[in-house]
Amino acid sequence: MSKRRQDNPVKRILHILLTVLLAVFVCVLLTTGGTWQDLASTLGLQSNSGSLTRDAGGQPPAEPAPSNRTTSAANGTVNEQDSNGSEGEYNPNGSEQMSYVPDTITNPTSIDIAFKDLQLSARDRLIHGDGSALRTLNTLETAPLGPSAGYNRVADFGPAWPGILGKTGGCDTRNVILERDMTDTAVKPSDRCDIIKGVIFDPYTGRLEQFTRGYKTSSEIQIDHEVALENAYRSGAMKLSYQQRVQLANDPLELVAASGRQNVIKGADDAAGWLPAYQPYDCLYVARQIAVKAKYRLSVTPQEKQAMLKILDTCPMESLPTENMNEWGAAVSLPGT
Q1: Is residue 185 part of a domain?
Q2: What does pTM read for this prediction?
Q3: Helix extents (H) in the chain
Q4: Is the distance from CB of 319 to CB of 135 less than 8 angstroms?
Q5: Over 50: is that where the pLDDT of 295 sits?
Q6: Residue 5 has pLDDT above 70, yes or no
Q7: In whole numbers, what is the pLDDT of the chain averaged over residues?
């Protein structure tokens, strides 16, 4: 028998290395040329579910555009998103954030559209405002609060909601402000003034609220004095005449329809002690307070002024609102005007 020829170990190692190098070369060629995707697709090896593919730039493919509404499991609210998918408050860099409405509003309505218009209006004020809120704040007298002893809401400012001094067309102040600040309102058939239902985007909480007039429900939406009457009294209103104080208490510039609960929590605090839970309203909130204090020549405390300056630092072009603007700064017509 002939002897079996022994394999050369050097040749064997070289053969293995050559095979590995060839396999690596083929893999690189297929991958960089995009041939692998075509081959895998042809052979049915590529699945669309549970896999991550990358485009030519090495980035994950764009996911389908998200819906412009997301529901928060924590609070059950629906958040509108802007085109960049960001949500939250309006910021001075130019991106406006949309709604914070309850999930009971499931389809776009006139209310949704109206609120988007309000947000755009807020952005326009920030970009094109005249900065009069900040300038006016710096003209107000800075002084400690006067004593609260002797203050009485009715004796000093008159009974609640008699009317807006010749501007309400016979309607009381509360219903005039409800009509101004709400949408989709309805009045009692037997009385053209009494608002029996409506919808409001509450500036203090950032929630869309359904209002229904009734013994247990009317107090859920209250008319707040942006400058609390006790604060107004202690910051100079005590020196005004009784008629001027009644005018102040019923001045649309001073009034806003808002959450009754937040109104109670606010009490007589100024901007140093309380700000709305809904932060995007801060600039308008302090601007309205500044407008009221300037109109009635009221003072601010040092702490109050610092709090206002801190807010206006985020919106230095904020303008002073006028009495013919609602709580979001939109122009309105009051009854009888």
Answers
A1: yes
A2: 0.64
A3: 9-32, 35-43, 110-128, 132-137, 153-157, 173-181, 229-234, 242-249, 260-266, 282-295, 302-312
A4: no
A5: yes
A6: no
A7: 74
308: in domain: yes
Those residues with Cβ within 8 angstroms of residue 301's Cβ, 6 or more apart along the chain or in another chain: 142, 143, 144, 145, 235, 270, 272
Number of domain units in the chain: 1
| 237-277 pLDDT per residue, tens | 999 999 999 999 999 999 999 999 999 999 999 999 999 99
110 vs 217: CA distance, rounded Å: 24
d(CA 60, CA 202): 41
DSSP state of 179: H
C-alpha span between 226 and 271 (Å, rounded): 10
Residues 6+ apart with CB under 8 A from 43: none
Rounded to 10 deg, the angle between the 282-295 and 302-312 helix axes is: 130
pLDDT value at 170 more than 90? no
3-state class percentages of the chain: helix first, strand second, coil last, to nearest 5: 40, 15, 50
The answer to whether position 97 is within a domain reads no
Tens-digit pLDDT profile for residues 35-52? 444 444 444 444 333 333
Query: Two tokens at 29?
Result: 């060629």
- The residue segments making up the domain with residue 302 are 130-312
Convert the pLDDT of each residue in 79-107 to its tens digit: 332 322 222 222 333 333 323 333 333 34
Would the CA dihedral through 306, 308, 310, 312 be positive or negative?
negative
Across 164-176, average pLDDT: 76
Residue 256: Cβ-neighbour burial (10 angstroms; 0-12, 13-18, 19+): buried
Nearest alpha carbon to residue 322 among 158, 133, 137, 96: 133
Residue 296 lies in a domain: yes
Q: Which two tokens stand for residue 123?
A: 């952005």
